[in-house]
Amino acid sequence: MIFVTVGSRNYQFDRLFQKLDELYEDGILSEEMFAQVGTSTYKPKHYTYKDFITPNEFAKKVENADIVVSHGASGSIMKALNAGKKVIAVTRLEKYGEHINDHQIQNNEAFSSNGYVLMADLELNDLGECFRKIYEGRDGLRPWKNRDPQAIVKMIDKFIRENWN
What CATH number is given to the structural domain containing 63? Predict the structure, then answer.
């Protein structure tokens, strides 16, 4: 099962849900999917969805998922990684009205550059390839070992210092 989460902020992510429908139509995706779509106005055709879910529902969806597709919120990504799931990170962009700025780029790049998630390109053109890599066992992902509660903060801080100064 694939679980898609985009959080509860008041920003749509329609292009993600449209792209996922296209991947079903192209035959790249066929397994069951559940999406938490938030305030998006696009209504998925090929998978089940709900606007918002409770924290308990979120935990159950992550637990039952093989793959979690998450927007670039470190909390959502960390919950999936802590549960031992394969994660595809997608980035909300300001230019599409998906967030107030582009900070999710740095979050997703930090997780990706450390080998913990597959990051779809900013326009989602390679989202299907991210799924293929997981299905074919060539994702190259490292397991997350969360021993230090500040590990994520340190990882993102280090990435930003090394790449964005």
Answer: 3.40.50.2000
